[in-house]
Amino acid sequence: MKNFTLIMFIAFILSPCVGHGQQNLLTVSGLVTQEGRKCKSATISLYKNNDLIKQVVTEKNGRFRLDLELSCNYTIEVEKLDYIAKRISISTNVPHEDATLPVYKCYLDIVPEFLFDGIDIGKLDFPIALVGWQDNYHEFYHNAEYTEEMMIIYEALLEEGFSRNGLAANN
């Protein structure tokens, strides 16, 4: 009985630490689509401070989930053979690390490489979005100005690709 009481006491003392550790993660819930359809077998690469730390593959529903430690910088890269990779950059710096963080949901659509044949797509090597903590929203949110600028670049390249290949845009 004495051992049971001691074990329960230790478990009670440590339980906030275990919960606190889980609480100090940002969960990213993502959906990858290819040309608007759920994307099976896309590779999701997670980089922490530019070092590859994890790779997962989307299942037939196109979904993935990652748990990110706080106070770090991450890049999430989505790749699939014969498709243009997309990246988002996430800073997990938050002012109050003991706060319960909402799940960050992201949706990434990838398009075939052939659309960009003969087009300089060097600007697409940059993340399509920069994500960080936004005090006014009390959640992680993309930098609207940067993302809008990158989307204008991306859409212009897509339009050029459709035009060069004699295709109609899916707008």
Structure description:
The structure is a single chain. The protein has 171 residues and is an alpha+beta fold. The protein is 25% helix and 36% strand. It is built from two helices and ten strands; from the N terminus they run H-E-E-E-E-E-E-E-E-E-E-H. The strands form two sheets. It has a six-stranded mixed beta sheet with strand order 4-3-6-7-9-10. Strands 1, 2, 5 and 8 form a four-stranded mixed beta sheet that branches. A hairpin with a 2-residue loop joins strand 3 (43-48) and strand 4. The radius of gyration is 20 Å and the shape is globular.
Keywords:
171 residues, alpha+beta, six-stranded mixed beta sheet, four-stranded mixed beta sheet, 2 helices, 10 strands, 36% strand, globular
Strand content: 35-45%
Radius of gyration: 20 Å
Q: Major sheet: order of its strands?
A: 4-3-6-7-9-10
**Shape designation:** globular
Count of distinct strands: 10
Query: What class would the helix/strand composition place it in?
Result: alpha+beta
**Average predicted local confidence, pLDDT:** 84
